[in-house]
Amino acid sequence: MRSFKTAAVVLGLALLAGSVASADKPETIKLFNGKDLAGWTHFLTEADAKLEDVWSVKDGVIVCKGTPGGYLATKDMYESFILVVEWRWPAKPGNSGVLMRITGDPKMLPNCCEAQLKSGDAGAMYGFQGFKLAGDKSRLFANPNAVGGLTGLRKAAANEKEAGEWNKFEITAKGDTVTIILNGKEVNKATGVDVRAGQIGLQSEGGEIHFRTVTITPLKK
């Protein structure tokens, strides 16, 4: 009888430990549900333009025409997280970006950190409208003449795929450090990044671009 009770106690403790571990495990959230743009809002530079003029969902893919300029933005705000975004250029490669920690007034380049998607430069990072970031001094630069000014960190390596193929960003923003892995290879890491909760955005910036997987795993501070 005693051995039975002991086994029951051990089993109970194991189940409790499993429950605690599950509770501590970060939850991955699908920002794009594969069907529509529920959970997203938007900003476009042309006041009379509508979301459907630029963004649509077809066959489980977000299609962005690229004009007019602007961005989709999550309604929810996130500070530290692992963000996974898959994208491709269906035809001619162009320009776009993944925006993080967006705050302030909506504008073409809002106050935020951008993970660049521009063809040939995917993985570079920019801080707009005074958003701070730092990193390897040999790759760090500033452009006060850009709209609102910017600070940039050139990518450390290139790992993009050809047009028509899917690329995958795995971006970890933890406190004041942001790391970008592109198609399985670390291509950039910024430090001294402004820490605050903000929206996640997908840019419309001149070229048609497709997105499919967009997930986020919030991290504890």
What's this model, at a glance?
By secondary structure, the protein is mostly beta strands. It has two helices and 16 strands.
Query: What's the architecture, going by CATH?
Result: Sandwich
Share in helix: 10-25%
The CATH superfamily label reads Exo-inulinase, domain 1
Report the C-alpha radius of gyration, rounded. Answer: 20 Å
Give me the number of helical elements: 2
Average pLDDT, rounded to a whole number, is: 91
Oligomer: single chain
Protein traits:
221 residues; mainly beta; Jelly Rolls; eight-stranded antiparallel beta sheet; 2 helices; 40% strand; globular
Annotate the secondary structure layout:
Layout: H1 2-24, E1 29-30, E2 40-44, H2 51-54, E3 55-58, E4 61-64, E5 70-74, E6 81-88, E7 97-103, E8 111-116, E9 125-128, E10 140-143, E11 150-153, E12 167-174, E13 177-182, E14 185-190, E15 199-204, E16 209-218
